[in-house]
User: Fold this.
Amino acid sequence: MNEPRLYDSRPAAIGTLIRSGAVYVILAVLSAGFLLPLAWMLSVSLQDVRGVFAQPFAWIPAQPRWENYSDVATLIPLGRYFLNTVIVTGLVLVGTLLSCSLVAYGFSRIRFRGRTVLFALCLATMMLPGQVTMIPLYILFSRLGWVDTLWPLIVPSFFGSPFYIFLLRQFFLTIPREYDEAARLDGAGRFRIYWSIILPLARPALITVALFTFIGTWNDFFTPLIYINSPEHATLTLGLNMLKSQIVGTGMTQWHLLMAAACMVMVPNILLFTLGQKYLVKGIAMGGLR
Amino acid sequence: MTRDGMSFRQSLGGYAFIAPWLVGFLIFTAGPMIGSLAISLHSWSMLSPPTWVGFENYQSIITEDPLFLTSLWNTGFYVIFSVPLCIAAGLALAMLLHNRLPGMGFFRTMLFLPSIMNIVAASVLWLWVFNPEFGLLNTFLRWLGVQGPLWLQSEAWAKPSLVIMSLWGVGGTTIIFLAALQGIPQELYEAAALDGAGPARRFFHITIPMISPAIFFSSIMGVIGSFQVFAQAFVMTGAAQAGSEGGPNNATLFLVLYLYKKAFLEFRMGYASALAWILFLIILLFTVLQTRLSKNRVYYEAGE
Assistant:
């Protein structure tokens, strides 16, 4: 990177070295600080009751209690929560990917009257706080008999989501129109072009949207909190809060079990994050740099 | 054919493709907005039929509800500290990561990871981090020889605790700034260095203007999101019985938490709807204000 020069190379090199060293030290300290709570959570989740309250705290328990993780299942129906979350997340993924890509195709590929206005309207709804529509929606879903079922968490995803429509539209605009034209000459209709030309080419953008959707749905708390009352329909996030109320609210001391539950809820996020970080970063950057 | 070359058939095709959003917009956004406005003008418990009260809900919220003022103050405090701190921290981290050194990808991963964590799991974790006796934070402070505060259990420290926790999730903002920094042409810095501009001048005259769209975007999104802060307060400051959320002497009773309690614990649907519209108007006001303020300060490249 630095071209060797005869005279001033040495001071410059030392300066660069010190600067790089400082950057590494600061970043290492900060990263450790960011990760410390997670490491601590893992440590607490492997303690016994005495270990949780021991002073000084032993970061590495003498006998890690992995059975804490299975003990959680004796306090709450963990399998049920997991299954519910998987059902909701799976269907929301299907709904979001289908509806958002269809709408994005319409907004990016077809010229129709009112397109600009409607697209602006679509973006504007991103600013609307969910609380404004929350009560009428609750009434709508309760009239349909959907309160305390998984439907209110799933159905809206089949009707598009502005941010993902925006992301996909931006990506579709970068796909050359020549592909569409060629397919049209071969006699392909609009839906065929969307399905067999655009969607395969848009794979990276679809993966980004899928990751965001997965994390958003897996983490959602507000919607299940409002609509789900009984434990057999609870999602993991809601169930974790129920467990927290049980343990903290009633003065029980099983923090190790609560932390084990929290760790389990976090695992899918960490896994997906490690696998798909590239796509997440791209999506966030795209959203921020419109 | 119309003059734009949009045939009726083509328009129909367009509408067919955007139909999912259009139908969803009518059913899940536009309809409920009108409904919410109507409900806000009624007194309604969902058990008996609603009675018309006009603007009474709005009037009593603004003039005679001390808890509303408390929640407004709490939310304002959170927004004013959390948003600028997250932007400053996000920019600082992004500048650290924007060095052409090996291993930056690793650090980016470490700093980004907490921001995608499940909010309830993170709240459970931080609830214990903030525990005055056994928590990570006060253990660390004790190690430094400082007696830490009671954090969430203290009226003065409950809100700052949640601001500290929000900084843990700064990774998303960092990524936005990092992408913006990477988009600045290197020649600008080289030209400025030739002109004798020092690091500070280059930062304020090149970096800041060039990433101003990202700063603008992050602050708008930050304000909208922070005004709706809910889950942390709900999980971390509530006991077992419903309705106890809100922290010591309502120190963490935020607008959305207050609204939630009015709607789903007290079943005052009219009052809660009026609160929702007030929240919306506040967010709208701030967004318009930010857009106005940034009109001449945000630099878009030619063609924007």
About this structure: The radius of gyration of chain A is 25 Å. Chain A touches chain B through 98 residues (CB under 8 Å). Chain A has a mean pLDDT of 90.
